[in-house]
Specification:
- Two copies of one chain form a homodimer.
- Chain A has a domain of about 270 residues: Rossmann fold (3-Layer(aba) Sandwich).
- In chain A, about 40% of the residues lie in helices and about 15% in strands.
- The first copy, chain A, is built from 18 helices and 15 strands.
- In chain A, strands 1-4-5-15-10-11-14 form a seven-stranded mixed β-sheet, with helices on both faces. In chain A, strands 8-7-6-9 form a four-stranded parallel β-sheet, with helices on both faces. In chain A, strands 2-3 form a two-stranded antiparallel ribbon.
- In chain A, helix 12 links the parallel strand 10 and strand 11.
- The longest helix of chain A is centred in the middle third of the chain and has 20 residues.
- The radius of gyration of chain A is 21 Å and the shape is globular.
- Chain A starts with 6 loop residues before the first strand and ends in a 6-residue tail after the last helix.
- Chains A and B meet through helix 3, helix 6, helix 8, helix 15 and helix 17 of A and helix 3, helix 6, helix 8, helix 15 and helix 17 of B.
């Protein structure tokens, strides 16, 4: 293999100048988000109190397929983009598969994951609008780290509400955010009404993403010049992440191949959408027969076992109602290590695409994901984030099918981040003490039944 | 700055095909290492029991300026090399300096540091010779992680003795080694005579690099088909690391500049030699006026306050006697976070070059190093390893001088690794609880005086 190229890069000049907005090309557009009070379709203006205006318009834009990447954002992309497209010869050899496996390595971003692609964009738009402070929530901390650095880049103050149990269990990620200059508060906190309410009822509450979202939104709405930013689920976040797939498309061309299968792990959908949408436009517009596989954890199976229905984005029911595959906003996912995948619903674009058959989904139990991650570490040297392990597990399944059939399929997956801050999870797996979690049909049915009351 | 290129890469074809052996070009060759028993100059054969034969010859080779990189090693380099050469526009702006600052980003290697460059080479030569097992010591774990992965790549079993206090305080690095499949033992251990001796005398001994080296060497010498490997100090390690400087030379050419100053942190010398030697050959051969600055910790000041004398490489006095700048092998450096810089002596090539005035050295206190690292994190997004923080601090000193004089000097430093596994150190710095350590003149004099007894 020594004469074959292993990694593919683009020159800085070739880094995309526009993001791809799949909403413009979708045959069936996503149903509109609905105002929680009026039950009317949401207008961009309805979101102004929370998000930067430009982001509100991107969120609801179903007309423009291409959105210019601001020069200031593209300029920052150049510090870590293009990320490498890598041919995983080591993994192919270990599997003995005829498949050609490629991965897009987003773990090389300074914060260690793809999250920075949208954090930089969101921080920039806030700055442009005269905002001085941004606030967000984070679980394991990948998004919080990205936002903290992006805020520093554009001279904004960042306040991050981190789910308390993660704040205590993952001190390294908290330190990373603080190193970038962010203020990190364990949630629930006494700094907001939402936090106080929870703590008054339950002084030992360990926090949840739902509570942290409520705290961050409350802070944004009660602080002058402060906006809220979000790291996944929303359309504009996936939009920014399409820089991944647009680069990969050019890089696959350099490798002389086109993917038969595109795979990414699935939490809210931003890394999946990021790598998939640019390739999917050829399926929508030219009927190209590529398969797109979202790999979700079995413990949070919204795509494989949820329903397509309007639901709230948060636990407290404060957000607009979104048309999504969901397990119900009251669904409490088990405390798996892949914290980034513990979300009850899927973004509305992806939900529509799944409904319309443009993509498929598989679920992976925690032990299968870490088995895959460990194999990948030994073959390729990079220790993957627990989230990314799900994409690797799904890739291995497909590569093994190729071994059976002898097909030389081209598989591309997104390595969304590295797992260097998640080594305790690998420890547990190596020690045989990692748990798998099952979700019962009763639990799914109960949470979904409650959705009927909403709308 | 948006039209200016930020990062420079080489194509896989341009990755160096040879390492550069500066010994062949040195006007004054290093004094020979001396056999500890016979006091005769060491022959390559004397080292065969410990190291792979090819490495023994590389160690003492003063004839061949260029050594071919085996195709199998170069093939593995392609998975992470070339590493980016980055123009640090963010840092320049924050400092308000007219200097042009570049850094070579070795932190993007899968194991997070430059150490992999030599680990792959050493593992390969062992494999070629029919060795099945390799053993080494590690402190903080950067080298241990690199060796563990390199061993896995070439199908060797790796046993790593990790200094006990690090084993307990830095569990993430231990986990990383185990993830790659290595057997990690806290040292002192009961698995060797050397370890037993220490534990018998002092059951609560927390370990030291000296003891861990003794354990690893003993295991290698008492185990069939097992060799010892080392991550710094030795000539062949610096040789392998020259891939850094050789790449940087081409990349600086792409940037249209040539460094006036080259800076790296200094422990045993492999990352300093790696980036410096290729540039230094133009100083030796063509009289090019480049300054080379080694940045060592004030708490372990062998280059700035040590003496040039024969000394042992280890605490127990088992290794050959090396001509080095040293603080004496009994010198116990304070427990700073930059574990990779806690070594009493400098490699013999570097010692000779310093003596002959080809390079200079500065010492940095721990708080200055972390202040520099924090600034770099905020400007460039990458959180540097505590070791690399020393190079950044020295760079900032030089950039500030340029600000005073208005000179547009070109400064190149080596970012030897990232600090994601060292966040507790940043925590302490942010909390104001990081200590600086002073070394008294009496302490230096006492340890150096003991050297007179050796030879």
């Amino acid at each position: 293999m020594s004469d074959k190229q292993k990694r593919f890069f683009l020159s800085e000049d070739e880094i995309p100048r526009q993001w791809y907005n799949i909403q413009a090309d979708m045959v069936t557009k996503p149903l509109p988000p609905i105002h929680p009070a009026t039950h009317q379709p949401l207008k961009a203006e309805d979101l102004y109190p929370i998000f930067a205006k430009e982001l509100c318009h991107q969120e609801l834009d179903t007309e423009h397929a291409w959105i210019d990447i601001p020069e200031e954002v593209r300029d920052m992309y150049k510090y870590y983009r293009s990320t490498p497209l890598v041919r995983a010869y080591g993994l192919e050899k270990a599997l003995g598969t005829p498949a050609h496996i490629y991965f897009k390595n987003e773990s090389v971003s300074p914060v260690g994951s793809h999250k920075l692609n949208s954090a930089l964009a969101q921080a920039y738009y806030c700055k442009q609008e005269g905002i001085t402070n941004v606030t967000t929530e984070t679980g394991a901390g990948q998004w919080g780290a990205a936002l903290s650095y992006a805020a520093k880049v554009f001279g904004l103050e960042a306040a991050v509400y981190q789910v308390k149990i993660s704040y205590e269990q993952k001190p390294y990620r908290r330190s990373i955010m603080q190193t970038y200059g962010a203020q990190v508060t364990p949630s629930p906190s006494m700094s907001t009404r939402a936090g106080k309410d929870v703590l008054t009822r339950d002084p030992n509450n360990q926090g949840s993403l739902g509570t942290a979202i409520s705290e961050a939104v409350e802070l944004a709405m009660t602080t002058p010049n402060c906006k809220y930013v979000l790291g996944s689920v929303l359309n504009h976040v996936s939009l920014h992440q399409t820089v991944i797939g647009l680069e990969a498309e050019k890089q696959m061309e350099m490798a002389g191949e086109y993917p038969d299968i595109v795979i990414a792990c699935f939490g809210g959908g931003s890394n999946f959408g990021g790598i998939s949408f640019p390739f999917m436009r050829h399926k929508i517009k030219e009927g190209k027969q590529t398969r797109f596989i979202a790999a979700e954890p079995s413990s949070c199976p919204k795509l494989t076992r949820g329903v397509f229905q309007y639901d709230f984005g948060d636990l407290s029911g404060l957000t607009p109602l979104l048309p999504m595959y969901t397990l119900g906003h009251n669904f409490m996912p088990a405390n798996i290590h892949a914290g980034g995948l513990r979300y009850h619903g899927a973004g509305m674009i992806i939900s529509q695409l799944l409904k319309d058959g443009y993509m498929e989904a598989v679920d992976i139990v925690q032990s299968e994901s870490f088995k895959a991650g460990l194999m990948f570490s030994k073959c390729e040297g990079i220790i993957p984030a627990p989230e990314s392990c799900h994409a690797i597990a799904a890739t291995i399944r497909e590569a093994n099918k190729c071994k059976e059939t002898g097909e030389e399929k081209v598989i591309l997956f997104n390595l969304s981040g590295h797992g260097l801050i998640d080594m305790t999870a690998y420890d547990q797996f190596l020690a045989g003490s990692l748990l798998d979690f099952e979700v019962t049909d009763e639990e799914v049915a109960k949470n979904i039944a409650e959705l009927d009351k909403i709308i």
